[in-house]
Amino acid sequence: MPELRPGRDEDEVGYQLEDWADSDRGWLIEQLNDLGILHRFEGDELVVDVGDEARVDDLVALIGEGEEAAADGEEQQVAEAGPPADDPAVASAVRLLADAAARLHVDPTDMQADADVAEASAAVLMARRFGALDEEAWEAVGRVTRRLLTLLGADEALDEQIRAEAAVLEKLLAPLAGPASPSAAAGERTVYEMSDWLPEQRAELEVLLDEAGVGYEWNGDELLVPAEREADVDAIFERAGNLPAPDDGGESDFDAEEARYQAVAELFAASGRLAGDPGDPQKAATVVEWAARVQGPPLIGMDEVDWFHITNRTRALVAAIDQDDADLAASEASALHELLRRVV
I want to staple 93 with a disulfide (CB 3.0 to 4.6 A). Which of 123, 228, 249, 286 is the partner? Predict the structure, then answer.
């Protein structure tokens, strides 16, 4: 649809969507398009003609009703935002995405798998969640899917990165097919506490453990491995999150952008941990470290206004840490975490 042209203030109505989830925004935009309601975005504000206010109010109310029902544990009706967790279309897309990820893990040049990822991603990225995956794991599926799409759409050959991201996505989606993790052999075992790791980081670690032939088990947030393989696992930990980039004699523009995107993802995780424990100096130091790495122009494809809000909030959080104000740091960390949730 064409964008709503700017008019007089009294002829327009604005809706502030700063705190909305991507899935809710996507659902609302789909409804506006289906109903033929012209609209435009000014940063986080949705603008419509005053004549469409009543219909848009109804759509916004449906979003709220869906969230309240979820919070109260009630069964959500068809009016909820986004497709339900057992939507057949989402199930079909998830199966296609998992199969495509498995094929790209084997052959990152598979053009049909490339097309299948693009086809499946539309429904997957729109869904709130699916099947047995919890919200955190489903958000990780979305983040890795977006990264894989970026790699597949790059002008240069990025076979190793494609293979690595596809393997991580395959791992994240594996619980939906029901396979169990490889079992650590009976006997003495070494335990690693993994509560601070994002789901996609755990999945990447599992991929590396599989490649090394190391059996493992999960006990909540604890990773259990055979004690005799501890040295191998320690070496794997050093690789996790730092998969090799193509050796082309220098860092490409894409590599640099991907490094900044990864820094944003790490800042997202670090700010969330600090919000829950603002008095921890190590968590605060980690936030400051990643905050320094994300500095620069907006990431490719990111709205400049959104990036402006993120960088301002990042600076405010670092200032709160420098002032040793735990309460302010907790507040700023929580606000930054929510802003970054839409990015990663």
Answer: 123
Residue 205: closest CA among 225, 219, 189 = 225
Residue 119's Cα: distance from chain center in Å? 19
Is there a contact between 236 and 212 (Cβ–Cβ < 8 Å)? yes
Query: Is the pTM for the entire model greater than 0.90?
Result: no
The hierarchical CATH code for the domain 253-341 is 1.20.120
Domain ranges, ordered by start, for the chain: 9-72, 88-177, 189-239, 253-341
Model confidence at 70, pLDDT cuts 50, 70, 90, reads very low
User: The domain 9-72: what is its CATH number?
Assistant: 3.30.70
- Is residue 207 predicted with pLDDT exceeding 60? yes
Question: CA 52 to CA 151: how far, in whole Å?
Answer: 40
Contact 207, 167 (CB under 8 A): yes
The answer on pLDDT for 129 being more than 50 is yes
Nearest to 6 by CA among 38, 44, 52: 38
Of 130, 67, 80, 119, the residue nearest 97 (C-alpha): 119
- Spell out the alpha helix ranges (H) of 153-252: 159-177, 199-212, 230-239
